[in-house]
């Protein structure tokens, strides 16, 4: 059975798969994780601010995003973002955003809902006595969050945040539905061009499996080191 396979197609396509495809995948993962973490922290602070309206808006956003399939959100923003750009700029026509920009916006908004819940749990894990002590020392709410609560919350939630980033790395493969040449999209193009679907999709699965396993092992090592420090 294996004699019918042409694994040399993988060797011939390595440069395209990794220089173009994997570079795009890692870039999208890094940018989406950074944007999602920043936006998710803002949402978490809104939910914990004590202002009922802000908490309600943030909670509604999180529930809304978490109830939708990611691939549907990708399609939705791909067609909606040009019209949002037209509305913001006052242009007479929908502006050209491009598949990368719309997919990046999609992942930031979608992942922010998950990062915000992780951050909210991390903030709530901090003893209430610490904010009270910071307030007694004259720190404002913003200063208390910046210098006392958030640094400890990030440390407590770092393993979970990194695990969610691994999930994000796997989810970025969905952008191939927009014909973006990420790693899976590049492998799919080669597979269809050369008629080697089995070989290319097996190779793509092996690469995703290897990277995710190595990253998960690194997270477990980090988690054990943080636990020892405590």
From TrEMBL:
Keyword Transmembrane attached: yes
Localization, UniProt: Cell inner membrane; Cell membrane
Gene source species: Bradyrhizobium oligotrophicum S58
Biological role: Part of the ABC transporter complex GltIJKL involved in glutamate and aspartate uptake. Probably responsible for the translocation of the substrate across the membrane.
GO biological process terms, semicolon-separated: amino acid transport
Domain of life from the UniProt record: Bacteria
Keywords for this protein: Amino-acid transport, Cell membrane, Membrane, Transmembrane, Transmembrane helix, Transport
Family per similarity comment: Belongs to the binding-protein-dependent transport system permease family. HisMQ subfamily.
This protein's name: Glutamate/aspartate import permease protein GltK
SUPFAM superfamilies: MetI-like (SSF161098)
Pfam families xref list: BPD_transp_1
Gene Ontology, cellular component aspect: ATP-binding cassette (ABC) transporter complex
Bilayer disposition of the protein: Multi-pass membrane protein
Transmembrane regions: 24-46, 67-85, 97-115, 160-180, 200-219
Domain ABC transmembrane type-1 intervals: 22-219
GO MF: transmembrane transporter activity
Record carries keyword Phosphoprotein: no
Quaternary structure annotation from Swiss-Prot or TrEMBL: The complex is composed of two ATP-binding proteins (GltL), two transmembrane proteins (GltJ and GltK) and a solute-binding protein (GltI).
InterPro entries (UniProt xref): AA_ABC_transptr_permease_3TM, ArtM/GltK/GlnP/TcyL/YhdX-like, MetI-like, MetI-like_sf
NCBIfam families registered for this protein in UniProt: HEQRo_perm_3TM (TIGR01726)
């Amino acid at each position: 059975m294996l004699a019918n396979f042409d694994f040399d197609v993988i060797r011939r396509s390595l440069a395209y798969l990794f220089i173009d495809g994997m570079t795009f995948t890692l870039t999208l993962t890094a940018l989406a994780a950074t944007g999602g973490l920043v936006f998710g922290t803002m949402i978490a602070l809104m939910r914990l601010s004590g202002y009922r309206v802000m908490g309600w808006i943030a909670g509604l956003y999180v529930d809304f995003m978490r109830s939708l399939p990611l691939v549907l959100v990708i399609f939705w923003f791909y067609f909606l973002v040009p019209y949002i750009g037209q509305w913001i700029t006052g242009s007479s026509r929908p502006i050209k955003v491009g598949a990368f920009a719309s997919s990046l916006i999609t992942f930031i908004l979608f992942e922010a809902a998950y990062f915000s819940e992780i951050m909210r749990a991390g903030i709530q894990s901090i003893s209430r006595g610490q904010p009270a002590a910071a307030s007694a020392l004259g720190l404002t709410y913003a200063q208390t969050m910046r210098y006392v609560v958030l640094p400890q919350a990030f440390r407590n939630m770092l393993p979970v945040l990194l695990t969610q980033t691994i999930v994000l790395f796997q989810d970025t493969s969905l952008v191939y539905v927009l014909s973006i040449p990420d790693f899976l999209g590049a492998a799919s193009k080669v597979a269809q061009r050369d008629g080697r679907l089995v070989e290319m999709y097996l190779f793509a699965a092996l690469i995703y499996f290897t990277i995710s396993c190595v990253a998960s092992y690194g997270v477990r090592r980090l988690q054990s080191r943080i636990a020892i420090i405590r």
